[in-house]
Amino acid sequence: MISILVDHWPAFWSGFLFTLGSSILALIGSLIVGTVFALLEISERKWVRIIGRVYVEIFRNIPLLVITMFFYVVIPMFIANVNGFTAGTIGLTIYTSAFIAETIRAGIEAVDPGQMEAARSNGLSYLQAMTHIVFPQAIKITIPPLGNQFINLVKNSSVLAFVAGFDLMYQGNLIASTTFDTSNTYLAVGLLYLILTLPLSYFMRYLEKKWA
Amino acid sequence: MSNFIQAYSWLNIRYLLEGLWITVEISAVSIVFSFIIGGLLGLLRYVKIKYLSAIVGFVIDIVRNLPLLLILFFTFFGLPNIGIKPDAIMAAILAMTVFESAMVAEIIRSGIQAVDPGQMEAARSNGMSYSQAMQHIILPQAIKKMIPPLVSQFVSLIKDTSLATIIMLPELMYHAQIIYGQNTNYVLPMFLALAVLYFIVCYALSWLSRILDRRLGA
């Protein structure tokens, strides 16, 4: 395993960076999209809530692979050419945003509704009360589950291997198919994934315990 | 529009449904295996047997933090390298079971831990043995807390069977790819069909769990 890692280090390293890059881009994107849909889901207007709900239910119940392949296969046929990395990252963003919307919604709903009422009755607008009173309290509740979503994101980014996204899994497959030492190559790939996910996973468990 | 009518010919629909059936079968088998194995591992981790629980815990953490796709590649392409040659179905079930057992074990452990420790103390001080207290007091309360995360884990499992298309397991995604590979006019209709079929199966499972939830009065 060590010799494969050393011999093919440039390929492993570039795959590692692509995996990290795709995960971070998708995290930023899905935090933005997820927050928007979480806010829609708790809106005071019924039809706005329905839009939020439908988005979340649809993308939580369809495989990431189907969403990613849609962007890789269907979008180029009708709109514009997208490369594997872009298609994969967009797919990851949309898929993860549905889960993040649920996490953020649960966090906001965990904040005592009296907080919102008190803020509104003190003259703050809905938006002001949200940003200054409810959101800061909700963030603490949502950070451990959001961290777990990021771990899932890193693991799910392996779907880029399906669409030639040059990520760690893709490079691992190339190396496995040239060296024929499949078992050791995949062990090396696993080690590199663990470097990203395992410390984060322990840190989130520590935060959960500390803040519980 | 005519694309859609052609794409949804009875022959294609039947082929998709055959794939869907394989998806459901693989999911069901993996759910049963991972529930049993994951349940035992979760309990083992909770009861804290010296050394053994720590080792099991560490292995669970490692498996949970690996991509399922990697485990799938390992079982299908990696194992033959060390002399074990599973076919696509065996490799898929093996990979799903290993990965999901670790996820289930973590859900079981945190579900039991979420029960107030005072419950165990009260049961013990009322004269129950450890296993009696576990069986009659702790587990019934813990199970209610475990159902929602378990169901969403099993929904993930169903979705993740689509990854097995890469080892040419003839499940739903693979069959859809074969159909749209024949004719580019079929691409859009097939993706729509994939979305609808996966959605129905996954949503039905969440819906069943909500009914179960109400029955248990959680």
Task: Lay out the secondary structure.
The complex is a heterodimer of chains A (212) and B (218).
Chain A: H1 2-7, H2 9-41, H3 46-60, H4 64-78, H5 84-110, H6 113-121, H7 126-156, H8 168-179, H9 182-211
Chain B: H1 2-7, H2 10-47, H3 52-64, H4 68-78, H5 88-113, H6 117-125, H7 130-160, H8 172-182, H9 187-216
Helix pairs in contact in B: 2-3, 2-5, 2-8, 3-5, 4-5, 5-7, 6-7, 7-9, 8-9
Subcellular location (chain A): Cell membrane
Pfam families (chain A): BPD_transp_1 (PF00528)
Family (chain A): Belongs to the binding-protein-dependent transport system permease family.
What does this structure look like?
The complex is a heterodimer of chains A (212) and B (218). Chain A is mainly α and 212 residues long. Helices cover 84% and strands 0% of the residues of chain A. Chain A has a single domain, classed as MetI-like fold (Orthogonal Bundle). Chain A is built from 9 helices and no strands. Chain A is flat, with a radius of gyration of 20 Å. Chain A starts with a helix and ends with a helix. The mean pLDDT of chain A is 91. Chain B is mainly alpha-helical and 218 residues long. Chain B is elongated and about 75 Å long. Chain B has helices at residues 2-7, 10-47, 52-64, 68-78, 88-113, 117-125, 130-160, 172-182, 187-216. Chain B has a single domain (2-216), classed as MetI-like (MetI-like fold, Orthogonal Bundle), CATH 1.10.3720. Chain B is 80% helix and 0% strand. The interface between A and B is large, with 42 and 37 residues.
